[in-house]
Amino acid sequence: MSGKKDSFLVNRLKSVGWAFKGAWLLLRTEASIQIQFCVAIAVTIAGFYFDISKTEWLFQVAMIGLVMSIEGVNTTIEYIADFIHPEFHTSIGRIKDVAAGAVFIASIAAIIVAAIIYYPKLF
Fold it and tell me: How does it sit in the membrane (predicted)?
């Protein structure tokens, strides 16, 4: 094969396209990320409604990105684990539990950040 290699820019654009495809697939097919996306929309609307500060926006956007990203990694781990060992196996179960635990930790952190931002505005 002596085909011409794509340029750096073309390769980056292809990578962005594949990443978008993966994010869209995740959002379209996974219930947990759909729920998280709805929560993200709700807190974004709340952010505009309560006119949160730039710093609060930064924390809110960071937590939305963190939770949704970790959920994507968790889903990937589950797919890989199921592909490698489709039947039940205690080690695979432990791997899946730990990955889900990472999402749980990120979600708790996001809830704490949301409480810090919105509690004073609500009460």
Answer: Multi-pass membrane protein
